[in-house]
């Protein structure tokens, strides 16, 4: 469970944790439905660069990239890709964590860049 603070508002999100190379590479591949208030938290052992791709991902997602303090520093929308060649969604900055949720979940919950995420 994580808590996202946006000013006076707090929102909780149940997350599956991807903290090994195998889990990070698999991500939400082949997931057909993601419950409303669930997502995936990607944990990197050190600052990382580069993007995410949506190969074999069946549902549209939004992604937030976080710095080492849990501050949301970039958000992107990502579309499913069943092709052999899939685009990368690159925040063009370094990050320590990333959170994937259903497309539009951040906006629906009024979460924006600059908000903070806390592990519970």
Secondary structure elements and pairings:
Blueprint: E1 2-6, E2 9-18, H1 21-26, E3 38-48, E4 52-53, E5 61-66, E6 72-78, E7 88-89, E8 95-102, H2 105-108, E9 116-119
Parallel strand pairs: 2-3
Antiparallel strand pairs: 1-2, 1-9, 3-8, 4-7, 5-6, 5-8
Helix content: under 10%
Which strand order does the major sheet show? 6-5-8-3-2-1-9
The number of distinct helices, counting runs of at least 4 residues, comes to: 2
> How would you sum up the major sheet?
7 strands, mixed
Beta strand % = over 45%
Globally, the shape reads globular
Q: What is the N-to-C succession of helices and strands? A: EEHEEEEEEHE
Distance between the termini: 6 Å
Q: Stretches where pLDDT falls below 50 for ≥5 residues?
A: none
Polypeptide structure, described:
The protein has 120 residues and is mostly beta strands. It is 8% helix and 46% strand. A 7-stranded mixed beta sheet has the order 6-5-8-3-2-1-9. It is globular, with a radius of gyration of 13 Å.
Short descriptors:
single chain; 120 residues; mainly beta; seven-stranded mixed beta sheet; two-stranded antiparallel sheet; 2 helices; 9 strands; globular
Task: Write a compact overview of the structure shown.
This protein has 120 residues and is mainly beta. The model has no long low-confidence stretch (mean pLDDT 96).
């Amino acid at each position: 469970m994580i808590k996202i603070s946006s000013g006076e508002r707090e929102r909780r999100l149940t997350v599956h944790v991807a903290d090994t190379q195998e889990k990070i590479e698999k991500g939400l591949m082949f997931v057909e439905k993601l419950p409303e208030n669930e997502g995936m938290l990607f944990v990197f052992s050190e600052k990382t660069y580069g993007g995410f791709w949506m190969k074999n991902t069946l549902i549209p997602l939004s992604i937030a990239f976080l710095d080492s303090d849990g501050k949301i520093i970039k958000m992107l929308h990502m579309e499913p890709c069943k092709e052999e060649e899939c685009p990368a969604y690159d925040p063009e900055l370094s990050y320590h964590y990333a959170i994937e949720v259903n497309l539009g979940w951040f906006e629906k919950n009024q979460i924006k860049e600059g908000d903070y995420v806390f592990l519970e």
